[in-house]
Amino acid sequence: MTSRTDVANIIDHTLLKPEATRADVDALVAEAKELGVLAICVSPSMLPITDPGELVVATVVGFPSGQVKPEIKAAEAAQAVADGAAEVDMVINIGQAVAGDFDGLEADIRGVVEASGDALVKVIIESAALNDEQIVEACRRSEAAGAGFVKTSTGFHPAGGASAHAVSLMRETVGDRLGVKASGGIRTAEAAEEMIAAGASRLGLSGSAAILNSL
Protein backbone atom coordinates (compact mmCIF):
# COMPACT_ATOMS: atom_id res chain seq x y z
CA MET A 1 0.00 0.00 0.00
CA THR A 2 1.20 3.50 -0.87
CA SER A 3 1.64 5.72 2.18
CA ARG A 4 -0.80 8.53 2.95
CA THR A 5 1.97 11.12 2.67
CA ASP A 6 3.16 9.80 -0.68
CA VAL A 7 -0.36 10.06 -2.10
CA ALA A 8 -1.01 13.50 -0.59
CA ASN A 9 2.18 14.76 -2.22
CA ILE A 10 0.80 14.12 -5.72
CA ILE A 11 -2.82 15.27 -5.28
CA ASP A 12 -4.43 18.18 -7.09
CA HIS A 13 -7.40 18.80 -4.77
CA THR A 14 -10.04 19.80 -7.28
CA LEU A 15 -13.26 21.81 -7.43
CA LEU A 16 -14.56 22.50 -10.93
CA LYS A 17 -18.33 22.19 -10.50
CA PRO A 18 -20.10 25.00 -12.40
CA GLU A 19 -22.22 25.81 -9.32
CA ALA A 20 -19.20 26.24 -7.02
CA THR A 21 -19.08 29.52 -5.11
CA ARG A 22 -16.22 31.58 -3.75
CA ALA A 23 -17.06 30.20 -0.30
CA ASP A 24 -16.74 26.66 -1.67
CA VAL A 25 -13.30 27.49 -3.01
CA ASP A 26 -12.26 29.00 0.33
CA ALA A 27 -13.35 25.76 1.99
CA LEU A 28 -11.40 23.74 -0.60
CA VAL A 29 -8.23 25.73 0.12
CA ALA A 30 -8.64 25.24 3.87
CA GLU A 31 -9.22 21.51 3.42
CA ALA A 32 -6.23 21.21 1.08
CA LYS A 33 -3.97 22.82 3.68
CA GLU A 34 -5.32 20.51 6.38
CA LEU A 35 -4.84 17.41 4.22
CA GLY A 36 -1.32 18.39 3.22
CA VAL A 37 -1.89 17.91 -0.52
CA LEU A 38 0.34 19.38 -3.21
CA ALA A 39 -2.07 21.55 -5.16
CA ILE A 40 -5.56 22.86 -5.69
CA CYS A 41 -7.29 23.04 -9.08
CA VAL A 42 -10.12 25.53 -9.52
CA SER A 43 -11.99 27.31 -12.30
CA PRO A 44 -10.21 30.38 -13.73
CA SER A 45 -12.97 32.70 -12.52
CA MET A 46 -11.98 31.81 -8.95
CA LEU A 47 -8.48 33.26 -9.35
CA PRO A 48 -6.59 34.80 -7.73
CA ILE A 49 -6.59 32.69 -4.55
CA THR A 50 -6.33 35.01 -1.55
CA ASP A 51 -4.09 32.90 0.65
CA PRO A 52 -2.86 29.69 -1.01
CA GLY A 53 -0.04 29.26 1.50
CA GLU A 54 2.33 26.61 0.16
CA LEU A 55 -0.29 25.10 -2.14
CA VAL A 56 0.40 25.04 -5.86
CA VAL A 57 -2.45 26.83 -7.66
CA ALA A 58 -3.73 25.17 -10.84
CA THR A 59 -6.60 26.11 -13.12
CA VAL A 60 -8.25 24.89 -16.31
CA VAL A 61 -8.36 26.30 -19.85
CA GLY A 62 -10.82 25.46 -22.64
CA PHE A 63 -12.73 23.50 -20.04
CA PRO A 64 -14.50 21.12 -20.32
CA SER A 65 -15.17 20.68 -24.07
CA GLY A 66 -11.87 21.84 -25.56
CA GLN A 67 -13.90 23.23 -28.46
CA VAL A 68 -12.55 26.76 -28.11
CA LYS A 69 -10.58 28.68 -30.72
CA PRO A 70 -6.82 28.38 -30.10
CA GLU A 71 -6.32 32.12 -29.62
CA ILE A 72 -9.03 32.15 -26.93
CA LYS A 73 -7.38 29.23 -25.11
CA ALA A 74 -4.04 31.02 -25.25
CA ALA A 75 -5.57 34.25 -23.95
CA GLU A 76 -7.34 32.34 -21.17
CA ALA A 77 -4.03 30.74 -20.17
CA ALA A 78 -2.21 34.08 -20.14
CA GLN A 79 -4.94 35.59 -17.97
CA ALA A 80 -4.87 32.63 -15.59
CA VAL A 81 -1.11 32.94 -15.11
CA ALA A 82 -1.48 36.69 -14.56
CA ASP A 83 -4.08 35.82 -11.91
CA GLY A 84 -1.63 33.59 -10.05
CA ALA A 85 -1.94 30.13 -11.61
CA ALA A 86 1.32 28.18 -11.50
CA GLU A 87 -0.18 25.32 -13.49
CA VAL A 88 -2.59 25.29 -16.42
CA ASP A 89 -4.64 22.20 -17.26
CA MET A 90 -5.83 22.68 -20.86
CA VAL A 91 -8.35 20.56 -22.75
CA ILE A 92 -7.42 19.55 -26.28
CA ASN A 93 -9.91 19.96 -29.12
CA ILE A 94 -11.04 16.34 -28.84
CA GLY A 95 -12.65 16.46 -32.28
CA GLN A 96 -9.25 17.18 -33.80
CA ALA A 97 -7.85 14.01 -32.25
CA VAL A 98 -10.82 11.95 -33.43
CA ALA A 99 -10.53 13.38 -36.95
CA GLY A 100 -6.78 12.84 -37.03
CA ASP A 101 -5.87 16.54 -37.24
CA PHE A 102 -2.86 16.20 -34.99
CA ASP A 103 -1.00 19.10 -36.56
CA GLY A 104 -3.87 21.37 -35.52
CA LEU A 105 -3.95 19.75 -32.09
CA GLU A 106 -0.22 20.31 -31.59
CA ALA A 107 -0.51 23.95 -32.64
CA ASP A 108 -3.37 24.45 -30.19
CA ILE A 109 -1.27 23.05 -27.34
CA ARG A 110 1.81 25.03 -28.34
CA GLY A 111 -0.19 28.26 -28.24
CA VAL A 112 -1.21 27.59 -24.64
CA VAL A 113 2.32 26.54 -23.65
CA GLU A 114 3.76 29.76 -25.09
CA ALA A 115 1.06 31.91 -23.47
CA SER A 116 1.62 30.24 -20.10
CA GLY A 117 5.25 31.35 -19.76
CA ASP A 118 6.91 29.56 -16.86
CA ALA A 119 3.68 27.90 -15.72
CA LEU A 120 3.44 24.11 -16.04
CA VAL A 121 0.98 23.02 -18.73
CA LYS A 122 -0.94 19.76 -18.35
CA VAL A 123 -2.77 18.56 -21.47
CA ILE A 124 -6.15 16.90 -20.89
CA ILE A 125 -6.64 14.44 -23.75
CA GLU A 126 -10.01 13.01 -22.58
CA SER A 127 -8.67 9.48 -22.95
CA ALA A 128 -12.02 7.71 -22.56
CA ALA A 129 -13.24 9.39 -25.76
CA LEU A 130 -10.19 8.27 -27.78
CA ASN A 131 -8.84 4.96 -29.04
CA ASP A 132 -5.34 3.77 -28.18
CA GLU A 133 -3.74 5.15 -31.33
CA GLN A 134 -5.31 8.57 -30.73
CA ILE A 135 -4.16 8.55 -27.09
CA VAL A 136 -0.58 7.77 -28.11
CA GLU A 137 -0.47 10.44 -30.81
CA ALA A 138 -2.09 13.06 -28.55
CA CYS A 139 0.62 12.35 -25.96
CA ARG A 140 3.37 12.58 -28.57
CA ARG A 141 2.04 15.89 -29.82
CA SER A 142 1.69 17.23 -26.27
CA GLU A 143 5.37 16.50 -25.71
CA ALA A 144 6.36 18.02 -29.05
CA ALA A 145 4.42 21.20 -28.17
CA GLY A 146 6.33 21.64 -24.90
CA ALA A 147 3.79 20.52 -22.33
CA GLY A 148 4.97 19.20 -18.97
CA PHE A 149 2.18 16.71 -18.32
CA VAL A 150 -0.49 14.70 -20.08
CA LYS A 151 -3.75 14.17 -18.21
CA THR A 152 -6.49 11.61 -18.73
CA SER A 153 -9.78 13.41 -18.29
CA THR A 154 -11.87 16.41 -17.37
CA GLY A 155 -14.20 14.26 -15.27
CA PHE A 156 -17.13 15.79 -17.17
CA HIS A 157 -17.22 13.63 -20.32
CA PRO A 158 -19.96 10.98 -20.61
CA ALA A 159 -17.40 8.48 -21.96
CA GLY A 160 -15.89 8.29 -18.47
CA GLY A 161 -12.77 9.26 -16.57
CA ALA A 162 -9.36 7.79 -15.90
CA SER A 163 -8.53 4.14 -16.52
CA ALA A 164 -5.42 2.22 -15.57
CA HIS A 165 -5.09 1.17 -19.20
CA ALA A 166 -5.02 4.75 -20.45
CA VAL A 167 -2.59 5.84 -17.74
CA SER A 168 -0.27 2.94 -18.57
CA LEU A 169 -0.40 3.75 -22.28
CA MET A 170 0.27 7.42 -21.63
CA ARG A 171 3.22 6.62 -19.37
CA GLU A 172 4.61 4.20 -21.92
CA THR A 173 4.39 6.93 -24.58
CA VAL A 174 5.97 9.80 -22.65
CA GLY A 175 8.42 7.76 -20.59
CA ASP A 176 9.90 9.75 -17.73
CA ARG A 177 10.05 12.93 -19.81
CA LEU A 178 6.56 14.15 -18.90
CA GLY A 179 4.27 13.75 -15.94
CA VAL A 180 1.04 11.76 -16.20
CA LYS A 181 -2.01 12.98 -14.31
CA ALA A 182 -4.93 10.64 -13.70
CA SER A 183 -8.23 12.37 -13.03
CA GLY A 184 -11.93 11.67 -13.36
CA GLY A 185 -13.83 9.13 -11.32
CA ILE A 186 -11.07 8.21 -8.86
CA ARG A 187 -13.09 7.79 -5.68
CA THR A 188 -11.36 5.12 -3.61
CA ALA A 189 -7.88 4.50 -2.23
CA GLU A 190 -7.77 1.30 -4.28
CA ALA A 191 -8.46 3.24 -7.48
CA ALA A 192 -5.83 5.84 -6.57
CA GLU A 193 -3.24 3.12 -5.94
CA GLU A 194 -4.16 1.44 -9.23
CA MET A 195 -3.51 4.69 -11.11
CA ILE A 196 -0.17 5.20 -9.35
CA ALA A 197 0.86 1.62 -10.14
CA ALA A 198 -0.07 2.23 -13.80
CA GLY A 199 2.27 5.22 -13.95
CA ALA A 200 0.40 8.28 -12.68
CA SER A 201 2.64 10.91 -11.09
CA ARG A 202 -0.26 13.21 -10.19
CA LEU A 203 -3.87 12.56 -9.18
CA GLY A 204 -6.78 14.93 -9.72
CA LEU A 205 -9.26 14.25 -6.92
CA SER A 206 -12.37 15.95 -5.60
CA GLY A 207 -12.79 13.39 -2.81
CA SER A 208 -9.23 13.67 -1.50
CA ALA A 209 -10.17 13.53 2.18
CA ALA A 210 -12.02 10.20 1.94
CA ILE A 211 -9.20 8.62 -0.04
CA LEU A 212 -6.42 9.87 2.23
CA ASN A 213 -8.34 8.96 5.38
CA SER A 214 -8.63 5.36 4.20
CA LEU A 215 -4.87 5.00 3.65
Strand content: 15-25%
Q: What is the average of the pLDDT values?
A: 98
CATH topology: TIM Barrel
**CATH architecture tag:** Alpha-Beta Barrel
* SS class: alpha/beta
Largest sheet: 8 strands, parallel, barrel
**Through-space gap between termini:** 8 Å
Supply the number of structural domains.
1
Q: Kindly report the spatial arrangement of strands forming the biggest sheet.
A: 1-2-3-4-5-6-7-8
Q: Which CATH class applies here? A: Alpha Beta
Spatial shape: globular
> pLDDT under 50 segments (min length 5)?
none
EC number: 4.1.2.4
Organism: Brevibacterium sediminis
Enzyme class: lyase
Catalytic activity: 2-deoxy-D-ribose 5-phosphate = D-glyceraldehyde 3-phosphate + acetaldehyde
Tell me what the structure shows.
- With 215 residues, this protein is α/β, with parallel strands linked by helices.
- The chain has one domain (4-213): Alpha-Beta Barrel (TIM Barrel), CATH 3.20.20.70.
- The protein is built from 9 helices and 8 strands.
- The protein has helices at 4-8, 22-35, 70-82, 94-99, 102-115, 132-144, 164-174, 189-198, 208-213; strands at residues 11-15, 39-42, 56-61, 87-91, 120-124, 149-151, 179-183, 202-205.
- An 8-stranded parallel beta barrel has the order 1-2-3-4-5-6-7-8, surrounded by 6 helices.
- Catalyzes a reversible aldol reaction between acetaldehyde and D-glyceraldehyde 3-phosphate to generate 2-deoxy-D-ribose 5-phosphate.
- The active site is at residues 89, 151, 181.
- This is Deoxyribose-phosphate aldolase.
